[in-house]
Amino acid sequence: MRLKARAILDKFGLTDKAGWPVSILSYGDRKRVEMARALVSVPRLLLLDEPVAGLNFEETARIGEEIRRLHGAGLTILLVEHDMDLVMSVSDQVAVLDGGRFIAFGTPREIRFNPRVIEAYLGRMSATA
Predict the structure, then answer these.
(1) Measured at the alpha carbon of residue 61, what is the angle toward residues 5 and 93, in degrees to the nearest 5?
(2) Distance CA 80, CA 47 (A)
(3) From 38's CA, which of 5, 30, 111, 128 has a CA 20 to 30 Å away?
(4) pLDDT in tens, 14-35
């Protein structure tokens, strides 16, 4: 188990912090530790609930790279996230909810141009005189 844990920490660039209490790590490192912990059990499906909430641009990009790497290695990932740039850059399929109701499902491109999604998130366009 220790060897497996070390290997996963290495993949996340956390090996140098292996003995540190999580409470003293940066917020971005804590998020990566959460993902690493989930992977120790070798899941077939990884559920990520807002993995980049509160992270800056660089930390978000790093998590995005990790998600793409894991998916590229064959892991199925269910991502719940509000950062649409991240969602669109890592997803094969996107399901959109508005007020808890399902409104659309499709590829990132299909979602980007879906009229229901645009109306829900940008508001109805109205003509002005």
Answers:
(1) 90
(2) 8
(3) 111
(4) 999 988 999 999 999 999 999 9
